[in-house]
Amino acid sequence: LTAIFFLPLGPLLDRRCLKYLVPSVLFVFLYSFLPHKELRFIIYTIPALNACVALVLNYLWVRRSKSTSWRLVSYGILGALAANLVLTAGFTVISSVNYPGGEALQSLHNLENGESNVTVHLDVAACQTGVSRFLELNRNWKYDKTENL
User: Is the pLDDT of residue 113 over 80?
Assistant: First the structure.
């Protein structure tokens, strides 16, 4: 998450970044002209961009003992990594409550006896908000996704 701040330094500090940066940025640029865009199609560029950022961070980190200013830069790198950890943990918690349909089905499993014969209707809204086959936990239950009832 914080790597985006180091990415522009890549071509300036290490020419090897260009072999990672140019194809990734070109792919995202060309893909942006398509009418149907989804993150899942461009997420494959992130490892290449992270490789470029790793080269930048390495360049900055190995100079930390040369002067006080480079040492301050290394503290900034450590701060960015700590911020990345905190942001990732926070976004993970936020995304875990982003699926109310899944939470509702999990609550139903907690309320109802697993031995009883139950038919659970799963409508489109529930299936779009977190209900999946992985949550069909009780063998005695019938999970019905019939539409237009």
Answer: no
